What we know:
The structure holds two protein chains of two kinds.
Chain A: H1 3-19, H2 21-41, E1 49-55, H3 63-71, E2 75-79, H4 83-91, E3 97-101, H5 105-110, E4 119-123, H6 128-152, H7 175-206, H8 208-214, H9 219-247, H10 257-282, H11 285-302, H12 315-321, H13 325-339, H14 343-367
Parallel strand pairs in A: 1-2, 1-3
Antiparallel strand pairs in A: 3-4
Helix pairs in contact in A: 1-9, 2-7, 2-9, 3-6, 7-9, 7-10, 7-11, 7-13, 9-10, 10-11, 10-13, 10-14, 13-14
Chain B: E1 6-14, E2 20-29, E3 34-38, H1 45-52, E4 60-65, E5 77-80, H2 92-102, H3 107-120, H4 136-148, E6 154-158, H5 166-180, E7 186-191, H6 194-197, E8 202-207, E9 210-215, H7 217-221, E10 228-232, H8 238-247, E11 251-257, E12 260-265, E13 280-284, H9 289-300, E14 325-334, E15 337-347, E16 352-356, H10 363-370, E17 378-383, E18 386-387, H11 392-396, E19 399-402, H12 414-424, H13 429-442, H14 458-470, E20 476-480, H15 488-503, E21 507-512, H16 515-518, E22 523-528, E23 531-536, H17 538-544, H18 555-566
Parallel strand pairs in B: 3-7, 3-8, 5-6, 6-7, 16-21, 16-22, 19-20, 20-21
Antiparallel strand pairs in B: 1-2, 1-4, 8-9, 10-12, 10-13, 11-12, 14-15, 14-17, 17-18, 22-23
Helix pairs in contact in B: 2-4, 4-5, 12-13, 12-14, 17-18
Amino acid sequence: MNRQRLRGLIRKEALQILRDPSSLLIAFLLPFILLIINGFGLSLDAHHMKLAAYVEGGGDVTSSLTEALGATPYLEVYWAPSGQAARAALDAGEVRGVLVLRQDFAARLARPARWPARAQLAVSATDPNTAALMAGYVEGAFGVWLSDVGTERALSVSGGAELEPRFWYNPELRSANFIVPGVIALVMSMTGTLLTALIVAREWERGTMESMLASPASMRELVGAKLITYFGLGMGSMAMSVLITIFVFGVPLRGGVLALCFTAALFLVFTLAQGLFISTLARNQFVAAQVAFLTTMMPAIMLSGMLFDIASMPGWLRALTYLFPARYFVAALQTIFLAGDVWPVLWPNLAGLAMAGLIGVVATLRVTRRRLD
Amino acid sequence: MSGLLARLEGLGYEFADGTTALDGLSAEIRPGVITGVVGPDAAGKTTLLRLLAGLLRPTRGRVEVLGGAPEAAHAATGYMPQRFGLYEDLTVGENLALFADLHNLTGAVRDERVAMLLEFTTLKPFTGRNAGKLSGGMKQKLGLACALLSKPKILLLDEPSVGVDPASRRELWRIVERMMAGGDMGVVWATSYLDEAERCAHVLLLHEGKLLAESAPGAFLAPLAGRVFRLDVAATERRHAVGRAKAQGGVLDALVEGDALRLVMAPGAPVPEAALLGGANLRAAPPRFEDGFVAALLQKAPELAVGELAPEPRRGARAADGPAIEVVGLTRRFGAFVAVDDVSFAIQRGEIFGLLGPNGAGKSTIFRMLCGLLRPSAGLARVAGRDLLRAASQARARLGYMAQKFSLYGELSVRRNLEFFAGAYGLRGAARAAAIARALRNFELESMTGTAAGALPLGVKQRLSLACALLHEPDILFLDEPTSGVDPLTRRAFWTRIGALADAGVTVLVTSHFMDEAEYCDRLAIVNAGQVVVVDTPAALRARVKTADKPEPTLEDAFIALTRREGAP
């Protein structure tokens, strides 16, 4: 590498970035939009789930039960006048579940000799996740109410052992804490790849690549200058994403900034190299953009563990995820954000990222030849 | 190194799809002189330069630059690709700085070299301007400066003068010649302008990938001495005089030049008689490179000679009221930029009218407004008696348009292309079948109806384009640089057809930056910087700039003089 040539090329790239707003838009506007949309839109928490409830035969409802069900923010109870009305609401998708109290529910409850007092919960299981959540919330609310009733009447409903659950790393059980670091991975793989994918394709389209190839600059200088310049831009984009994650979405950063920078740097080298690779083969901005979208978005969403738990995938699919560096990046980011610098977890993922970056750069240097044929 | 810059031995290049770009080329490139690589489009010029620059690897034969592989000579090679290969977002100064860095120029040497090139190219006042905002001529000068920065031993220029105004074209030559003075830099200059060949010390004439001739221009033209004549013909007789001359035995080539007819006789043919040709004042003329090219082509393939054409059916007989195209005070602004500034002209029926000017002069904008594709900011445009603002589609139905670039469907066969365009012009049933049959016959396409249009030779593609534009028998034909970059025989054949159409009453509007095309026009409007500088016949334009030391000025001389005198800001 010749220092002067490299410096000249880096200056050229930097000037182009400053003069042509398109790369700045990709580096800052695209991540901003993606983070905001995905961060707010992609939530696994269920709030205000609608529940229809009614008493068979139109009997009276215990007022304390009404209060107990109404108190939880997760449920919104609609007292239906009849069984048909409740069923119709479920069929129409207006409510997600129906709670049925037997006609003699209140009467039986009042007299322990006639226990159990029966109630039935029917949940729409079209979305199994939400169905399970809903069943859990209703059961919880029901249980709380039942123990209140017991205390009130100095009766012991249950006894003996008790289980006290604790939720570590994400005690509020906010899905944003888990999802937004994953969205950073999606955002960075898209912007990183798109930046370089368009840049080299543009040089081919405008004919400047031909001048560069005929100049004394070596392939390593040409590729290196692009990687270095766009690495700087990509890190800026990463910094903005991290700030949004912390201050807009309130995700805690438990690990160190250094570990975060190092992880991001390794991943960025890979995505930038991937973009260079694509545009060197495509030589056309439109094709390059399409390939960049396809090859980054799919694996980053589906196979990275950002949304879908890798451990519960079938074995062959789980094996496939190891081929996509986004997986290592998501795992490292979630660890750094939620658990801290847990090096035994980070090292294998960082090693995976480093390996991917190396392969990306070598592959790019291999395909960018000095010739036009 | 044996004093040679480059040596080509049986050099051949084949594209991945199997088409041959270059075939068995052997030649030598010497230092200290300009070697012209001359030929029409698709002759293999760009491929040859890319092979010399080490950007392509020969599929056959050998290329040696400075005694080794071309890749090893990058530091000593200056290369200017055909498309502007500089960064448009960077200023003139920043582009030069980048190339200085790439060639490791530092300190006083660097400053001196950059200053000298800015001086030579007169780009100094524009050092801080973005390269993308330069005019076509200035862009080429900047490209040249960047290629020259490192004092290369071999300078490869790929059609630097295409689309550039004639004044800048001459300037490019001056710059290169000045930079060569006193040194041993060798230049390889690719061009499709045949007049540029005469300025080269040595010429490689390429045609369809083959080396047609290799010699000094003087030696190339020597056999034509005493065989080239000019005679005066009446302006109204110009087009017919060509046909008459070709019918005479011994006439190899006949060509209109202003109000004169240029004749190239076959070897050994007697001196022609002016009276027989319907002209007067026959005089010998010095042979030009184009005469040599035509002679060489005909020697190789006599069947290419342009024959007589069947007369076109008369048309345009409808209500002959006023001019076919009338433009009054036409103006088009793009933001603060005035692309077309208060342009007025009128074109009579059956006239061939040319808009002549460099790239960026505003020709295309005028053209688009006349086609009804762009709204004028001010002024009036009437085509076929219809106001384009009110009845654009009716006016367009009477127009035929042939674009500069091949704009047919390359994957479709000749017949399918014709069928598609017939349908697009609203021809149905028997009318459509008749129009297609007529096009196939008149344009000699019958033997290749099933061939994919993309696979046709350049000249035939152009015939097919014209056939498609004429399917609906338009009264008005728009041609956008129809024959730039084609070989002279194809150009003659094309213009013979256009002449026949004009005789049949079709009005033809041509835009061109190509002086040779302008010669075929009845009248010309010289367009420069958005304004029409002057409208007149080619002969009158030449006459305007006739001086004692230039008794027979070319159209290019006229163009330069007139734009400087009347269009100067």
